Amino acid sequence: MEGPSDAGVPGRSAAAKALDLARLLHGECARLLDLFRERESFPADHDPEGGRLVSLGRWSDDMSAAEQVWHHRCALRKCLGLLELLIAREEEEEMGGGDEGEYEAVRRAVRERLGHLLFSTAALLDDGDDVGDLSPQHDCAEGRDEVEGSGSFAMKLWMYKVLLELIHWTGSTSKVLCELHSEREAKQEQTDL
User: Which terminal CB of the chain, N or C, has fewer other CB atoms within 10 Å?
Assistant: First the structure.
């Protein structure tokens, strides 16, 4: 996230910072899934059925990189909502017991960094002249926050799917941020000539 302390750092564009943050977050999401698998004894190769919990509406391959970032930001907002539901359900289940372990610390870091990434991408899109008419009120992503089935296993499976969504969307966002960063760098080089 660009803040007062790093706003004047030469050589680091807002797009590069957002990209670095997305990559860091993607790695932390993978770590969170690994910790969840260990805690819940899920096999490493488990592939749940039922499709995506978060999906994009009105997607087109001919969108600009900025438009793709905007759509991914919508998906990340849905993911944050799902993560907050997951945290609330886990805390309800735990009844406030015990100290914060590695899983809880990584989960907290993921939630905080996801919030920072949402802020960074919003600022990045606000600063760009390549965004066009993207209304912040329009939500371009759809999400399912219901648990399919009942019981403890259904809840754990839903939580597992939420973590998979986080990995998918942070990885995908990293790719589109890389494209946006490359586009803006090329544009800057042309204006510098």
Answer: C
